[in-house]
Structure to design on (373 residues):
């Protein structure tokens, strides 16, 4: 895992430029998953996620808060009609993982770390940990597994195209905890959604797509899980990926329809109440000015910096203005230049200080207020 440190020069130089990682699921009634229900008598044990925390700090790039402005379609490469890199209107929202910089050793370390997390359940009774400790474990395990498999499959345009032994990634049971094979979807729906009533949990799970909740630049743990879920909720709800105004109608992410059976039984009423808890001024105006809700917003493209492709044309990047430190694809350089322009616009608007820029705890961050139910 120290291999992640090799990416620090890349990340540092990027930030200087304005850059700042089976079997089909069965019915939900499957009794095997009942074993993962939290115990009523928690023990005071902690799991150390320092390794994953280091990885996230070095591999994840924030695109900054949404300005609710669609990014226009970029021009094609010089002398070619082929479009490399990201073309999504949402490409300047959320976070990105630098998959294109990962070598075989780093990719292998993801698998090793996922197996290490699986083995934790053989050493400690996960169900007897505090609810926040359990929740952090499941979110981290899910996200580690998603990063691992997307890294192994890269370059790929859309994570949902990935298959493991012929089964779609989200449904493939390649994760094993306490001898039970789990898919990413099993972790979300049969363990977390089934045992946590707070809809904030949906923002912890990263699906590898631009259109979904962002992956955070730090690992979840019992102390920060509430804060990070709040951050994820604010980022997603106040973005074009989460909510949009279409005439007099509120259009929302398809994610909300997917999780409605668990959290939004009265879909429009419950969802609007939830969105209102995290809405900023612009989003509040959208909520107040619309009626009806349609879950129609999606973006399947991979949440990386390169758009899931290897581009043949590169740009030289310098860290000190003199010596060349590394090369990046031209489309990536263009994306990062657009990101820098966006940040300068935010500064001119006086919208600095938002937690989206950093993985550190800022004075404006709310305190965690206990166990997430």
């Amino acid at each position: 895992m120290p291999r992640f440190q090799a990416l620090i020069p890349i990340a540092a130089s990027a930030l200087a430029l304005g850059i700042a990682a089976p079997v089909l699921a069965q019915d939900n009634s499957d009794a095997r998953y009942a074993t993962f229900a939290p115990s009523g008598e928690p023990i005071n044990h902690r799991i150390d996620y320092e390794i994953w925390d280091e990885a996230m700090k070095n591999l994840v790039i924030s695109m900054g808060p949404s300005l609710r402005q669609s990014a226009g379609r970029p021009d094609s490469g010089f002398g070619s009609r082929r479009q490399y890199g990201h073309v999504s209107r949402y490409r300047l929202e959320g976070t990105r993982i630098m998959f294109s910089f990962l070598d075989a050793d780093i990719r292998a370390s993801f698998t090793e770390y996922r197996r290490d997390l699986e083995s934790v359940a053989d050493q400690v009774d996960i169900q007897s940990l505090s609810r926040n400790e359990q929740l952090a474990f499941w979110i981290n395990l899910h996200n580690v597994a998603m990063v691992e498999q997307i890294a192994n499959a890269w370059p790929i345009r859309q994570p949902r195209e990935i298959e493991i032994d012929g089964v779609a990634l989200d449904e493939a049971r390649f994760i094993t905890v306490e001898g039970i094979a789990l898919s990413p979807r099993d972790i979300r729906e049969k363990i977390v959604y089934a045992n946590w009533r707070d809809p904030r949990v949906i923002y912890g799970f990263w699906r590898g797509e631009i259109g979904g909740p962002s992956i955070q630049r730090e690992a979840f743990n019992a102390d920060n899980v509430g804060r990070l879920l709040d951050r994820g909720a604010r980022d997603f709800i106040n973005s074009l990926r989460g909510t949009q105004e279409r005439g007099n109608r509120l259009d929302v992410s398809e994610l909300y329809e997917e999780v409605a059976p668990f959290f939004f039984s009265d879909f429009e009423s419950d969802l609007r109440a939830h969105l209102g808890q995290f809405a900023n001024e612009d989003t509040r105006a959208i909520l107040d000015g619309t009626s009806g809700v349609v879950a129609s917003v999606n973006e399947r493209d991979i949440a990386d910096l390169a758009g899931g492709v290897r581009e043949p044309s590169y740009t030289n990047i310098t860290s000190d203005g003199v010596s060349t430190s590394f090369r990046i694809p031209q489309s990536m350089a263009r994306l990062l230049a657009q990101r820098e322009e966006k940040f300068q616009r935010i500064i001119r608007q006086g919208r600095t200080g938002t937690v989206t820029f950093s993985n550190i705890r800022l004075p404006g961050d709310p305190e965690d207020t206990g166990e997430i139910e």
User: Anything to note?
Assistant: Residues 8-28, 354-360 have pLDDT under 50 and may be disordered. The CA atoms of residues 49 and 189 lie 23 Å apart. The chain has ten helices and eleven strands.
